[in-house]
Amino acid sequence: MTVTADRTASRPGGVLSDSLVVTWRTLKRIPRIPELALFAILQSIMFVLLFAYVFGGAIQIEGGAQAYREFLMPGIFAQTIAFASATVAIGVTDDMAKGIVDRFRSLPMARSAYLTGRTVSEIIYQAGILVVLMLTGLAVGWRVRGGFVDFLLGVGLLLLFTYAMAWIGVWLGQLVRTVEVGQQVSFTVVFPITFVSNVFVPPDSLPAVLQPIAEWNPVSTLASATRDLWGNPNPYVSADGFPAQHPALLTVLWMVAIIAVFAPLGVARYRRTSR
Amino acid sequence: MPAIITEGLTKVYGSSSGEVRALDGLDLQLEQGTVLGLLGPNGAGKTTTVRVLATLLRPDAGWARVLGLDVVRDAQALRHRIGLSGQYAAVDENLTGRENLWMFARLYQMPSSTAHQRAGELLEQFDLVEAGDRVAKTYSGGMRRRLDLASALIGRPELLFLDEPTTGLDPRSRLQMWQVIRELVSAGSTLLLTTQYLEEADELADTIGVVDHGRIIASGTADQLKAQVGGERVEVVVRDPDRLAAARDVVAGLCDGEISVQEHVRRVTAPTRGGAGQLVRVIRALDDAGIGIDDIGLRRPTLDDVFLSLTGHSAQQTPDDEPDEPDTETPIPAGRNA
Ligand SMILES: Nc1ncnc2c1ncn2[C@@H]1O[C@H](COP(=O)(O)OP(=O)(O)O)[C@@H](O)[C@H]1O
Ligand SMILES: [Mg+2]
Predict the structure, then answer these.
(1) Do B71 and B119 sit in the same domain of this protein?
(2) Domain CATH number, residue B241
(3) Do B294 and B219 fall within a single domain?
(4) Is the pLDDT of residue A93 over 90?
(5) Which one of B124, B201, B261, B277 has the lowest number of neighbouring Cβ atoms within 10 Å?
(6) Are B334 and B260 in contact (CB under 8 A)?
(7) What per-residue confidence (pLDDT) applies to B178?
(8) In whole angstroms, what is the distance from residue A274 CA to residue A31 CA?
(9) Is B230 exposed, middle or buried (0-12, 13-18, 19+ CB in 10 A)?
(10) Do B151 and A103 touch (CB under 8 A)?
(11) Do B238 and B220 fall into the same domain?
C-alpha cells in the first residue's frame, strides 16, 4: 500500500477538519478539569466583589455606587479576556512538555491545525466564561443600556480580542519550557497591564505619568469601547483625546497589530522544528 | 532499497555553556522488514536521531532517506508512512484511550467512522478495551505506553520508531511491552527502537548500533557485540582468600578464555558459552574440591560492559567526569582496552 500526496492534509477540507479535531480536543479538557474554568471564573468574581463592595466606595465616579458597578463590569470582562493569553500559553507549554505537539507534528495533518484549533477553542472557552460573568454582573447591578446590536458588537469586540490574546499565548507558550514558568511569566505580564488601565479606576485618578498608558492600553481601549457601546459610564482624562473619541477603532487597531506581530512569531516558532 | 539510510547526520544545539553536538556524523542503515536497536546511554543522541528521522527536527548537516524519501524535502509525504512513539508517552491525559485513538486517526486523515473502527481494533489489540473509556490520566505507566504505541500504529505505518519503549516501566509491564513489540515484528514490521539496555536490544533487535556522543561506535548482531565484550561469564566469590588460586585452577579446567582474579574481593571471573549448565558444573567442581563459595552467578554483559570494552569509559560517566579508569572490580576482558 503506497500512499501518495493526494491524502495529505494540505487540501482545504483537511485543514478545516484537522482544526476542528484540535478544537474538540482542547475543549474536551474543560469538563475533564473543571477546576480550571472554575478558578478562572472565581478569580474574576473575586475582583468584582472586591471592587464593587470593598474598594469601590473609595473610587469617585459620577453617579455613585450604581454607576461604578456599571463602569466596573466591562473592565472585568476586558481583564478576564486579557488572561486568555495566559490560558493559551499554559496549554501550549503543557502540550509541548508532554510530547503531544511532537506527536501532532509527526502526523500527516495540516501544519496550521494545531495553532488554529488552540486559538479558536479559546474564543469558545472565553465566551462561556463571559456568560457566567455577565450573569454575575447583572446580579450586582450592571445593566446594558444600549441597543441589542450594540450589545452584540461589544461582545464581538471582546471575543475578537480573545483571539488576539490567544496568539500572544501561542508565542509565549512555546518560549518557556515548563508550565510553572509559563504561569509566572503570564501573570507578571498580564496583571500590571490590567492594573495600569481604566479597568478598576477612572484614568484621571492615576498618577499623571501613568494616565496616557492607562488610556492607550489595549485592555483600556477594549473596556472603553464596550462601555460606550453598552451605555455604561466611562470617564476619560480628556474627552477630546483620541482614545476617548475612537475607542472601538483603537481596539480594532490593537487587535490587528497584535495578531500581525504574534501570529507570524508563533507560527514561525511552531514551524521551526529545531526544538 | 533500505528503509533508512543516513550519512553524516549532524545536529548541533547551541546553549549558554557552549554547543552540544547531539549528532556528530551519524551513519545508519536499516533494511526493510528488520529491527534495528540503537543502544546508548543517556545523552548519546538516540532521541535526536529518532526526531530527525521522524521529520521533527532538521539536521544541520548530512542527509537521511527514510522509505526512499528525504526527511527534509519530502517530510509531509513521509509522515503518512511512519509511526512514532516518543520517549515519553505522548497521549492526551484528559481524553479517554478511545478518544485519543480516534483523534489521532482523524489526524491521519481517516473519516470519522473509520477512525472509530480503528480505535476499537487497537484497543482490542493492546488489551485496553476495559480501560478504553477512562481518561488516560488514570492509566498506569504500562497502559500509557501501550496506548502511545497504539497511537503510533494507527496509520498502519510501514516503519515504526520506538524511543526507549520500556524505560521507566516495572519488570512486568516491560515483559508485556516486549511481547507486544515481538508480535509487531513477527507481523513483518520494520522497526527502529532505542534503548539503554543491551538485554532489550538483544531481545528485540536483529542488529544493534551502539551510539555514543552522536556517532555509531559499533554495530552488529547482539552475538557479535557480545563476542566483542566477551559474552557471558561465570563469577565466583570464594569464601577463603587462601583458596583463590585453587578456585582459579578449577574454573580454568572448565572454562576456556581469559580468566581474571580480583584478590581484594576474592573473585574469579571466566568467560563461558555453557550457560546455566556450565554454572552447575562449576559449582560441582568447586564443591568436590572443597572450596567454599560465598556467591556465584552467570553474568551477562550489560551496556556498561559494551561501553567499557568499546570506549574505555562507563556508560554512566563521560571520560571527563572520570579521570581514572573506573571501577577496577568490573571484569574487563583482557586485551580489549588500550
Ligand atoms: N533541545 C535541546 N537543546 C539543547 N541540547 C539538547 C536538546 N536536545 C538534546 N540536547 C542534547 O543533545 C544530546 C543528545 O540528546 P538526546 O538525543 O536526547 O540523547 P538520548 O536520547 O540518547 O538520551 C544531549 O547532550 C542533550 O543534552
Ligand atoms: Mg532519549
Answers:
(1) yes
(2) 3.30.70.100
(3) no
(4) yes
(5) B277
(6) yes
(7) 92
(8) 34
(9) buried
(10) yes
(11) no
Within a domain: residue B128? yes
The side-by-side arrangement of strands in the sheet containing B233-238 is B260-262, B267-271, B233-238, B293-299
Q: How far is the CA of A33 from the centre of ligand 2 (A)?
A: 30
Cell of A267: 507560527
Using CA of residue B224, residue B226, residue B227, residue B228, what is the dihedral sign?
A: positive
- Which chain B residue lies closest to A102 (C-alpha atoms)? B56
Domain that holds residue B242: 231-300
Residue of A24, A106, A125 for testing the chain B interface, max B β-carbons within 10 Å: A106
Place of cell 457566567: A132
pLDDT tens-digit map of A197-215 = 989 888 888 888 998 888 8
Q: Which atom of ligand 1 is nearest to the CA of B211?
A: 22
Contact map slice: B 31-70 vs A, CB within 8 A: 51, 54-58
Q: In angstroms, what CA-CA distances link B215 with B39, B54, B209, B318?
A: 11, 18, 9, 15
On whether residue A252 sits in a domain, the answer given is: yes
Bridge partners of B10, per DSSP, are B24, B61
Tell me, what's the pLDDT at B189? Answer: 86
Q: Tell me: do B180 and B255 sit in the same domain.
A: no
Mean pLDDT, all residues of chain B:
86
What is the distance in angstroms between the Cα of B104 and the nearest Cα belonging to chain A? 8
Whether residue B8 lies inside any domain: the answer is yes
Mutation to probe ligand 1, out of B47, B163, B316 (largest number of atoms < 8 A from CB):
B47
ipTM over 0.90: no
Chain A, residues 109-168, CB within 8 A of chain B, namely: 109, 113
CB contact under 8 A, B84 and A33: no
The predicted structure's pLDDT at residue B193: 95
Q: What angle do CA A232, A250, A175 make, to 5 degrees?
A: 110
Q: Does A106 touch chain B (CB under 8 A)?
A: yes
Name the closest-CA residue to atom 24, ligand 1. Answer: B43
Q: Which residues of B touch A121 (CB under 8 A)?
A: none
* Residue whose CA is at the smallest distance from ligand 1 atom 5: B13
β-partners of residue A200 are none
Alpha helices in chain A (DSSP H): 12-32, 34-49, 64-82, 84-97, 100-106, 113-140, 148-175, 179-195, 211-216, 218-230, 242-245, 247-271
Ligand 1 mean position, distance from CA A52 (Å): 53
Interface of B with A in 95-154 (CB under 8 A): 95, 99, 103-104, 106-109, 135, 151
**pLDDT tens sequence across B189-219:** 899 999 998 889 988 999 999 999 999 999 9
User: Mean pLDDT throughout B231-237?
Assistant: 85
Report the separation in Å between the CA atom of B214 and the middle of ligand 1, taken as the mean of its atom positions: 9
Domain limits for position A203: 34-98+125-273
Q: Which residues, at least 6 apart from B175, have a Cβ–Cβ distance to it below 8 Å?
A: none
Paired with A151 in beta bridges are none
Cα–Cα distance between A223 and A200 in angstroms, integer? Answer: 10
